[in-house]
Amino acid sequence: MRLRQILATAAGFLAVACAASADTVVLKNGDHLTGTVETSDGKNVTLKTDFAGEIQIQWSAIAEIKTDKPIFVVMPDKSTVSGIVTTEGSNIIVHPVSGAPVQLAVSQVTVVRGADQETAYEKSLHPGILEAWKGGINLGFALARGNSETTNLTTGFTADRKTTNDEITAYFSSLYSTNDKTGGGTIANSIVGGIKYDRNITKHVFAFGSGDFTHDELQGLNIRAIYSGGLGYHLISNPNTTLDVLGGVNYTHENYSATVDVGGFPVTQSVSRNLAGITVGESGMHKFGKSTTATEVFYFYPDLTNTGQYRFSFDAASVTQISKWFGWQIGLSDRYVSDPPILGTKANDIIFTTGVNFSFAH
Questions:
Q1: What are phi and psi of 34, to 5 degrees?
Q2: pLDDT at 99
Q3: For a Cys-Cys bond, which of 72, 169, 191, 326 suits 113, CB 3.0-4.6 Å?
Q4: What confidence tens digit (pLDDT) does each residue in 182-235 have?
Q5: Which long-range contacts (CB under 8 A, 24 or more apart) does 319-325 make?
């Protein structure tokens, strides 16, 4: 009997100690919640509890907050103050380790971070070049044997590194197809890829530099390299939707070579040209629910060297996550040139891909 009393008393002291070491939120209806204050965006407070995980509480429903450990509060002038937090009426009071308490209206509070969230935020400001990457690898394959003997292979790769100050994006997609039954050999061999760097100048304005590269065997295109630079504007920027527009100038190098039939005789054509042009374009992203993300990028390149001629590129993709690292992807890439120099070749080439996606994040 005495042992039970000792255990009960010890459990009571432990419960009191745990409650004392937790942040406390008192609601206007009288409810008391304990846990760890993680974040606040000025409208809601996220409290991590042992009994219900993370819960969001509206500031308007809160009568009192008291934290057990220092948290970080962003002031109206964007500076950050750290300390134990209490509330008094419609004001929040931060008690630093040293110095006088700082008081401000709850309506002025836009960001609150717990210690772990502040550490992650500080790290996100200056990540290493190999950190903060996310993207995916795509693969599609089709094989037919019997009345037809075709092989189709599509591959793709996307990578994105976005910080508060800049962003690097890279992409690659290819289509390779053969038909051995009819003796046609290679019936498609196209590769497109590129890389782009954005640097924020203000909250909405950014500078960019990019390179777009294309190879198309059946068009006789060995390489088309378009190097662009200029300024852009973030029209929409939120976690679910982004939309950027941009404009600038570009330098284009093209190299073609192919053997074509002219009057029944094989003739080898080779063209190499360097062109100056303008770059205008837009790019966007939208999340549909929790599992599907769609992206698209469009660039238009009017030629200044040969007035009236132009090129454009269009890339779109969607990925539906089946698990954290595995999903299904659909991609579309289109490259158009108004004046293909190789006789008998078409101006437009489209790569459509679908298959599995393996996501990664670092």
A1: -125, 150
A2: 83
A3: 72
A4: 566 787 889 999 999 999 999 999 999 999 999 999 889 999 999 999 999 999
A5: 319/136, 319/292, 319/293, 319/357, 319/359, 320/291, 320/292, 321/291, 321/292, 321/359, 322/291, 324/359, 325/358, 325/359, 325/360
pLDDT range class, residue 164, cuts 50, 70, 90: confident
| Of the listed ranges 45-54, 165-174, 324-333, the one predicted with least confidence | 45-54
Average pLDDT over the chain reads: 87
> Residue 243 pLDDT more than 80?
yes
Domain positions in the chain: 2-125, 133-361
CATH class of 133-361: mainly beta
